[in-house]
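re: that chain from earlier
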Amino acid sequence: MPQPLSRRSVLALGAAGLATLAAPARAQDFAPGLLYAVGQKFDKSFNEGAFTGAERFKEATGIAYRDYLPASTAQFEQAVAALLRRGVTDLALIGYYYAAPLASLAPKHPAVRFTLVDAVVEAPNVQSVTFKEQEGAFLVGMLAAMASRTGTVGFIGALDIPLIRKFIAGFQQGARHARPDIGLLVNFVGTTPAAFNDPTTGAEVAKAQFQRGADVVFAGAGVSNFGIFAAAKDAGRFAIGVDSNQNHLYPGTILTSMLKRVDLAVERAFGEGRSGAWTPGSRALGLAERGVDYALDDNNRALVTPAMRDRLEEARAAIIQGHIRVRDAA
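^ sequence. v structure.
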């Protein structure tokens, strides 16, 4: 026969119940998901950064995530529906081109927490994470100018959109900060998002810039960067990577990489969703937030002299302290 509970037992059970209510959502109440940008999952760049952040979260918490790699932007609703059918409660979306469709879709799923990386959508269940790309680009622009022997550097973007213009603006300001007389070239791989996945054209654009005198090119073109890097190696010129640390792809050719910490954005979104700290709204990550940076490792350390690094660190501090104001494209 069950024994009646003592007053002490009742109090203990009540306290335990209150603790449960106050605790973060349990793993079974939380299911993170990741919708990659169109392209390759292991692109050594944007998508792989998102993957790294999700994997780091999984390793730290033991909570698995669901993911989806679309073949085109037209698959957005199909991809989201597939992830939600799998029980996703917190969905990180990687790519500026998801902004418009997410603005229409988010109100239909008010219980889902969406985190959009690289664009802004205002909705009560959307958190938008953008980056101050111009600040990171300023530093690699300085390095490009300091490393150039011809006095001309170039930028190769995927296509001409406001996001890419932020990279260009920072790169130009940084290059001229280090060397006011530097020559600057700007070209694009294409005119549609497919330009992020066209290494052949990327290589041709790079060759054209080399023929015009550029000896350092900043590649901001996704998977198209692979063609730019190969062209730089063949021509004996320098290239600069983007988003993830791409120095290891062509040691001795890649001068540095401008880091854009998509991994931190994804890891933080999942962590906040799990703990109950996730909130809608917008946040922009720059040098002060360690959201952007330049990469220095064994693959490029010999290319970046102590004097160059000192100037870069001085500029970093000045930007964070507000003594150097880096304009974006606007």
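The chain has two domains: 24-131+263-285, 133-260+300-321.
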